[in-house]
């Protein structure tokens, strides 16, 4: 494949290849020299029209660990604020020789437009578009679950048959959409839990179940993924009070205690502490939020390598230090 636009486009084999490649690349982080020469001479552009901390920084770290040149573009402070279009911005980047463009955009469909427009010749990676998809987030979430939930199972570990619960603002969540697609492709059972006003129209066609009762599903879950309530995308009339939301859909210590002992608490970040998750839960050893960020670098290295790396092995055999 040339682009990564949607988790829905990934077959099981595609997804497993990315997860296995990320596993191999994660080992580089344990080496004294964390850099690989694999993408030397290639240019990766991070094109961010919307704010980001984790995704932007980890794509930059991933590209640099593969020795690519990185150009960071933020719409704030650029000629976008003077009205420059996506097309003219893309043509400008193309003129600078971008081999891959990692794009975050407030409009659902912007990465697809970029990939199919002919404005740029390189690969396009969706780093989150509107309320549509965030495929590398779903991949790093699956990577984290696979590592934690199948520890000690050796090769061929998978998430088939696991029960994953995704809780909160499903309506506005590209993370939820991408996770539903990817996790169902990997054979997991996904249950979405949300207030009725935060469930998207047409969810009955998604490969998952829907519940409005968090307490009813917690004891059967292998991982619970708490979502940020996206007030910035929301009409106030849609939303219960913060206190009511936290009482019915927030994860606190008491609820966490009802989960199976092995079950994970996940959050893509940024978190609204005190709303969808209490500080006690966010800071507990069962919460993988920080580990997810670490794993995001390996996943993004794998995606860039598989799109741009060609026939070079992801990790060359290290020269032996023994005589
Ligand atoms: N999870 C995530 O996409 O975080 P950022 O918005 O900080 O990139």
Automatic annotation (TrEMBL):
Endpoints of the signal sequence: none
Family according to the record: Belongs to the aspartate/ornithine carbamoyltransferase superfamily. ATCase family.
Subunit structure: Heterododecamer (2C3:3R2) of six catalytic PyrB chains organized as two trimers (C3), and six regulatory PyrI chains organized as three dimers (R2).
One Pfam short name: OTCace_N
Keywords: Pyrimidine biosynthesis, Transferase
Matches recorded under InterPro entries: Asp/Orn_carbamoyltranf_P-bd, Asp/Orn_carbamoylTrfase, Asp/Orn_carbamoylTrfase_sf, Asp_carbamoyltransf, Asp_carbamoyltransf_Asp/Orn-bd
Task of the protein: Catalyzes the condensation of carbamoyl phosphate and aspartate to form carbamoyl aspartate and inorganic phosphate, the committed step in the de novo pyrimidine nucleotide biosynthesis pathway.
Domain Aspartate/ornithine carbamoyltransferase Asp/Orn-binding residues, every copy: 161-307
Known pathway: Pyrimidine metabolism; UMP biosynthesis via de novo pathway; (S)-dihydroorotate from bicarbonate: step 2/3
Annotated positions binding L-aspartate: 82, 174, 228
GO MF term (any one): aspartate carbamoyltransferase activity
Keyword field contains Chaperone: no
Chain residues that bind carbamoyl phosphate: 54-55, 104, 134, 137, 269-270
EC number of the protein: 2.1.3.2
Entries under HAMAP family matching the protein: Asp_carb_tr
Source species taxonomy: Bacteria, Bacillati, Actinomycetota, Actinomycetes, Kitasatosporales
Catalytic activity line of the entry: carbamoyl phosphate + L-aspartate = N-carbamoyl-L-aspartate + phosphate + H(+)
The protein's enzyme class: transferase
Top-rank taxon, per record: Bacteria
Protein name: Aspartate carbamoyltransferase
UniProt keyword Transferase present: yes
Residues annotated as domain Aspartate/ornithine carbamoyltransferase carbamoyl-P binding: 2-146
């Amino acid at each position: 494949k040339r682009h990564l636009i949607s988790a829905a486009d990934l077959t099981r084999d595609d997804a497993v290849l990315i997860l296995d490649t990320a596993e191999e690349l994660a080992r580089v982080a344990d080496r004294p020299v964390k850099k690989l020469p694999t993408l030397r001479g290639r240019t990766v552009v991070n094109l961010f029209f919307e704010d980001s901390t984790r995704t932007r920084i980890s794509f930059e770290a991933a590209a640099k660990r593969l020795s690519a040149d990185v150009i960071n573009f933020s719409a704030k402070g650029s000629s976008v604020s003077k009205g420059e279009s996506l097309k003219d911005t893309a043509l400008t980047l193309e003129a600078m020789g971008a081999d891959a463009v990692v794009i975050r955009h407030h409009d659902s469909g912007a990465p697809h437009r970029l990939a199919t427009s002919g404005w740029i010749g390189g690969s396009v990676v969706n780093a989150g578009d509107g309320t549509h998809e965030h495929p590398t987030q779903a991949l790093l979430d699956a990577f984290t679950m696979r590592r934690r939930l199948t520890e000690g199972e050796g090769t061929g570990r998978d998430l088939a048959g696991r029960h994953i619960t995704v809780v909160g603002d499903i309506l506005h969540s590209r993370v939820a959409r991408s996770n539903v697609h990817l996790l169902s492709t990997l054979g997991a059972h996904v249950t979405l839990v949300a207030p009725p006003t935060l469930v998207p129209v047409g969810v009955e066609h998604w490969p998952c179940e829907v519940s409005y009762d968090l307490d009813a599903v917690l004891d059967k879950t292998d991982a619970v993924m708490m979502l940020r309530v996206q007030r910035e995308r929301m009409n106030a009339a849609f939303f219960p009070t913060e206190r009511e939301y936290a009482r019915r859909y927030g994860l606190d210590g008491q609820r966490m205690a009802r989960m199976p002992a092995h079950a994970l608490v996940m959050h893509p970040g940024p978190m609204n502490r005190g709303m969808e998750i209490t500080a006690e839960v966010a800071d507990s050893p069962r919460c993988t939020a920080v580990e997810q960020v670490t794993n995001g670098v390996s996943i993004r290295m794998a995606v860039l390598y598989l799109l741009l790396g060609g026939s070079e092995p992801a990790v060359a055999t290290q020269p032996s230090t023994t005589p």
